[in-house]
Inverse folding.
């Protein structure tokens, strides 16, 4: 089953990525983020070209005050959370390092620029691989470890669909933020909302599946 | 740039190999454990084998918890003629000594041992007390633990096998609802014992003697040189010295004992840094003897190295993160084996991490622990936090000399019971009860057949 799903994702990869891009374009249009057209992108040589929506990112050097304020506000916000939530300190410290690194690149290398197509290429590379690997992850988490095979398969399919749709919405959010703020938050957005967020979604589904399985086991023991 | 890319690729491949090896091992453990119908723990023999037992309880400034553990041990249903409780007041400057003396005056099986000077650390206290112990078996409990009534019977049962040199019970946090961290640690402990220790024992690999909720044969302890007072993890050190000399370590999953898990990150960070340092010390001290060990089979040797090197995975993981970040953002890196590199990157992120989470989830499923399983996505924070703390500890361990860092010290883990020893102070079973006071009665229930069960087991029944 996992082999079939992985193979299907690979075989229909281009169509899936096009559907993903259509969702992005649709949502971007409806939330009022201006599109400057579409660009053809090669995600991987083995996959066909994909049309992706293009939205302009401002040069941070052109908006120095806004960039400075955003940098200060984001660092201040993270420091406040850092002080109040000790368990997340290492994670937050890493985010601060990423923001500072992006600010340093903007300051030191004025010609450095990242456009929407480049960001989407990196994003889609990560996501298509997650979709290919996900059935195998699901096989372990849901099918082998849960008491019922049918339930495990159901959870696996649900997760596969959810991850793909949710990826498009996360990408729209990132493009929206980058459209207004430039590339200051690019590494943070990719790190937090990219593959790591996929892992969070997988864990959320896994915990829900376990919760229901435990409830069922407890119910069966009591009856 | 080409050199940087090459270095990053080498680092990434190394990371993937190491983490995949650990991931495969953890997947095997989970699959084995969930398919295991019945664990071999010799519980049928509980109560039939009654060796003489010395229970060692080292205490350093433990006035908040000392009375709970001593009362729980006194209440154990083991023949008083065949047991003694050695309560060790290890250089305390609070009321610990006083509480121990009161118990010794009240119960003849409690012996008060006061240690006013000497080296610090649990190993030194245990070495001091072991010289005074007269039992064939030495059982160990930390001061914050609350053993159930049948605990001693459960722990001594596997000693009927003459090959068994040490026994380990299961540690269960009793304060999982006190904070998010404590809840996450309850999940983590569940995975470590229910899956890790049980699988390693059942597969004939290397279950670990954890230095508490466990026991060791007194004669064997003497034969292997006693407690290592210089080690920060004297339990790991002893485990490997026993195994090298051909003794077996047994694990008893049903011997559940309740502990206080750290409730704040500062306390947890200090604890995990001590474990990382101590464990790595053991790796450096023992790896040659371990590989040469003539009484160990190949699978034991491989698994033992995995156990000893487990804290190395944190810096290796960080190395992999950094390398993959560089490779992902450098366009030249994608020119040749882009697909493979990216696939490996995503693969190790998901599979490497997934093995840990699969273990956490499967343990919660086996324990029917619904309360904590919903915290699973948040365990990522614990994962990040622990990775940082371990990297810090290993940095100090290997490069501490450069920063003129002093020797490693034993830091006692903070207690949260914050009170009066479970009502002991008034001698009436709890006039001043607070949140966790009188944990003994709170955590145990008496079943209809008269046996004491841990509360969770009773709920499941």
């Amino acid at each position: 089953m996992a082999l079939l799903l992985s193979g299907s994702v690979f075989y229909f990869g281009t169509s899936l990525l096009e559907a993903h891009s259509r969702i992005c374009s649709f949502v971007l249009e409806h939330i009022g983020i201006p599109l400057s057209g579409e660009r053809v992108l090669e995600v991987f040589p083995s996959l066909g070209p994909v049309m992706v929506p293009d939205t302009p990112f401002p040069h941070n050097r052109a908006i120095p005050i806004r960039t400075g304020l955003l940098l200060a506000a984001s660092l201040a916000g993270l420091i406040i959370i850092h002080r109040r939530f000790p368990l997340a300190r290492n994670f937050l410290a890493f985010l601060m390092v990423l923001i500072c690194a992006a600010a340093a690149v903007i300051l030191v290398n004025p010609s450095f620029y990242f456009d929407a197509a480049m960001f989407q290429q990196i994003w889609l590379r990560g996501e298509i691989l997650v979709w290919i690997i996900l059935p195998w992850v699901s096989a372990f988490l849901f099918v082998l470890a849960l008491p019922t095979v049918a339930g495990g398969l159901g959870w696996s399919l649900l997760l596969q669909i959810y991850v793909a749709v949710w990826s498009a919405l996360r990408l729209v959010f990132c493009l929206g933020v980058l459209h207004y703020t430039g590339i200051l938050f690019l590494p943070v957005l990719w790190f937090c909302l990219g593959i790591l967020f996929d892992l969070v979604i997988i864990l959320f589904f896994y915990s829900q599946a376990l919760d229901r399985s435990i409830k069922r086991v407890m119910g069966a023991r009591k009856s | 740039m080409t050199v940087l890319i090459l270095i990053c690729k080498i680092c990434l491949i190394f990371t993937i190999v190491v983490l995949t090896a650990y991931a495969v091992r953890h997947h095997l453990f989970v699959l084995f454990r969930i398919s295991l119908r019945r664990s071999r723990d010799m519980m049928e023999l509980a109560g039939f084998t009654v060796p003489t037992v010395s229970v060692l309880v080292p205490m350093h400034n433990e006035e908040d918890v000392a009375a709970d553990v001593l009362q729980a041990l006194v209440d154990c249903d083991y023949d008083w003629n065949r047991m003694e409780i050695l309560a060790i007041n290890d250089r305390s400057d609070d009321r610990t000594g006083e509480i121990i003396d009161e118990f010794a005056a009240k119960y003849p099986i409690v012996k008060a041992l006061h240690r006013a000077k000497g080296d610090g650390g649990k190993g030194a206290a245990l070495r001091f007390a072991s010289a005074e112990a007269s039992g064939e078996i030495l059982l160990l409990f930390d001061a914050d633990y609350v053993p159930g009534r049948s605990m001693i019977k459960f722990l001594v049962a596997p000693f009927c096998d003459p090959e068994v040199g040490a026994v380990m019970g299961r540690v269960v946090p009793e304060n999982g609802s006190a904070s998010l961290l404590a809840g996450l640690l309850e999940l983590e402990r569940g995975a470590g014992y229910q899956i890790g220790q049980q699988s390693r024992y059942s597969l004939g690999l290397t279950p670990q003697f954890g230095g508490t909720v466990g026991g060791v044969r007194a004669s064997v302890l003497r034969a292997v040189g006693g407690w290592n007072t210089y080690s920060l993890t004297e339990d790991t050190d002893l485990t490997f010295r026993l195994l090298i000399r051909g003794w077996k370590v047994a694990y008893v999953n049903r011997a559940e004992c309740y502990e206080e898990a750290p409730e704040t990150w500062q306390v947890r960070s200090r604890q995990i840094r001590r474990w990382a340092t101590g464990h790595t010390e053991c790796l450096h001290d023992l790896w040659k003897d371990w590989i040469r060990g003539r009484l160990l089979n190949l699978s034991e040797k491989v698994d033992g190295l995995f156990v000893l090197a487990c804290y190395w995975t944190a810096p290796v993981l960080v190395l992999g993160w950094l390398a993959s970040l560089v490779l992902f953002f450098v366009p030249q890196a994608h020119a040749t084996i882009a697909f493979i590199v990216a696939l490996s990157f995503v693969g190790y992120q998901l599979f490497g991490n997934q093995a840990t989470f699969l273990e956490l989830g499967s343990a919660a499923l086996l324990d029917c622990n619904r309360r904590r399983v919903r915290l699973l996505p948040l365990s990522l924070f614990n994962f990040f936090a622990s990775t940082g703390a371990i990297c810090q500890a290993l940095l100090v361990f290997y490069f501490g000399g450069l920063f003129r860092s002093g020797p490693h010290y034993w830091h006692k883990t903070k207690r949260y019971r914050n009170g009066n020893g479970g009502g002991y102070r008034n001698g009436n079973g709890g006039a001043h009860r607070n949140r966790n006071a009188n944990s003994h009665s709170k955590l145990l229930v008496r079943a209809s057949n008269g046996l004491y069960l841990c509360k969770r087991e009773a709920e499941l029944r």
Observations:
- The mean pLDDT of chain A is 86.
- The CA atoms of residues 73 and 79 of chain A lie 10 Å apart.
- Chain A touches chain B at residues 44-46, 86-91, 93-94, 122, 125-126, 129-130, 132-134, 136-137, 140-141, 144-146, 195-196, 198-200, 202-204, 206-208, 210-211, 213-215, 217-218, 221 (CB under 8 Å).
